[in-house]
Amino acid sequence: MSIYGHPFLLPAQAAAACLTLLAAAPAVPAAQRTADVMAGTWTYGGRPYMLLLGILVVVSAGMAVTGMVRARNAARRAAQMEKLLRQRLGETTEWADREREIRTLMHHAAIGIYRSTLDGSRFTEANKHLALLYGMHDEKEFLRTVTPLDMHPSGQNRQELMQKLRRDGVVSRQKILLRDKSGSLRHAITSALISSRNESIFGLIYDMTDEHNSKEEMRRTGAMLQSVIDAMPNPFFFKNARGRYKIVNRAFCRLVNRPAEALVDRTVEAFASPAMAQIYNDADAVLLTAAGPAVQRYETVVESEEGGTEVLLYKESICDDNGTITGIVGAAFDITSRKETESALRQAEERYRTIFMHALDGIFTCTPQGLLLEANPAFARMFGYESRETLLETVPSVRSLWVSSQTHDEMMGLLCNRPQLTAQRAEMLRRNGEHFWAEISCQAFYDTQGEVTRIEGIISDVTHHMMQERELRTQASTDKLTGLMNRYGFDEAFERLLAQAQRSSRKVGVAFIDLDGFKEINDRFGHDTGDMLLKEVARRLQQRVRETDITARPGGDEFAVLLWDVGGTEDLRRLGESLLDALRPPYRCDANVCTLTASIGLSLYPDHGLTAGTLLRQADQAMYAVKNAGKNAVRLAV
């Protein structure tokens, strides 16, 4: 077998082949071998022995080199293996350290971490937070007694979660409801994946209950605040620093005639014309660029499809804790009615000024101390001044216009207790010294402390009116025949006298007089004679009574006398006898002489009664008793 036919033999294999060839060659004599060598044709048994020997030498050398290379490579590989083993050993130690760290972190993590079987029937690992989330403090007890199904209140939701996990291999940030040991529900977020290496489910559970409750509380608070804001009658808004509305109430929506959805996160251009929007934005820019909180207040017109609304706009910039302006809060106050009222007031003031200047009655304003502040022309003329300016310059105090300063002071005192006086009459003094009667109506105006700040009044000259009233009153209360008081005047006078007696603890006597035989004289001599007789009776009675007493003719042939400050019943009887004596002398009736007597009944206040009606009744009954007893006498009420 020739080695040339195997060019790719390894050195060891080539050497083995050469040795095999040499061993198979026949023996050759030494002389022959020498001759072959000298001739350069060394053969051995007819074969090229020298060539084979060279090949063998080369192959042997190659084998030596190859062994050295192999040894070196083996040493290198051993070193590499040692390095790799050391590296792997270090990595194993590092992984062990890392695993311990991970388990420590897992144990103390603020979220629930678990590993469960692939079917989710039980936990194989769980950290302390997951046990605490369920309401247990020992995670080992948790692993022993709690299954994933125990923590899910809804089997259907858990089934859907597992189906999604098997389908996708992972679940990320899935919101779930968990049930703790007490049965309470907790809100959580879970992420989980299927681990193919150990065929398990690895998952995280983050307890969101506090955050959920906080958000729910914030939502409720926000809803309540929105309800409060919506309940505000005035339009209200809040816009951020970029000019976008974030909060609006219903009143604001009504003001601009837009729903809240069309305003929130929009700018003022959502409802205002470009011109008005520019005005609002310019005003906002002043607030937003101010150094710290700032306030604006101005009147404007808010436009809408239904027209414009005049409002007073109040705006204030809002700053955070760092002093950075974050937005603007504002409120609008509808001043349409106020504007209309102001216009009406201006018109009313114009009308009042016209009335003030052209009124026939005097109009004035003064201080509580009497300083005259304002007066119209009629007031000046009433007191004899040519102009209101002259009056205001000349008269130091309205007190000097009263005849009685005491009357003025009393009227001012009344105004301190009640805000208004109506139709108060007082005697006034003109510039030339002439007296006249005036009727005054005043109203006091007070400050916040209840003190009178000014008095406004109207004054009318009622002198002529009072004279007419006095004449009419006299006519109404006077008997035309005798000039004495009639029944109407007597009743008024009696009430006044009783009131005075009550205040002063005095006694009042009543004498009721009925003439005896008057009817016969009147029938015999005629009515003219009867009238003359009645006049004479009235004259005699007036001459006999005191100035403090009142004589009246209630009607017909009856007379009455009110006797003031009577000492008692005996004093009253004496006065009654005096009246009877005055009526006994004869009367001249034309050419004839007539004799007339009277029956007199007496009563005394308060002995016989407390009211005018009672006292008159008592006196009348006493008078009739005299009539029945023979007339011409005086009798005291019983």
From TrEMBL:
TM ranges: 48-69
Domain GGDEF: 506-638
Keyword DNA repair included in the entry's annotation: no
Annotated keywords: Membrane, Signal, Transmembrane, Transmembrane helix
Transmembrane among keywords: yes
Domain PAS stretches: 348-391
Signal peptide coordinates: 1-30
Residues of the PAC domain: 296-347, 422-474
Any one GO molecular-function label of the UniProt entry: catalytic activity
A Pfam family hit: PAS_4
PANTHER family according to UniProt: BIOFILM ARCHITECTURE MAINTENANCE PROTEIN MBAA, DIGUANYLATE CYCLASE DGCP
UniProt-recorded name of the protein: Diguanylate cyclase with PAS/PAC sensor
Organism of provenance: Oleidesulfovibrio alaskensis (strain ATCC BAA-1058 / DSM 17464 / G20) (Desulfovibrio alaskensis)
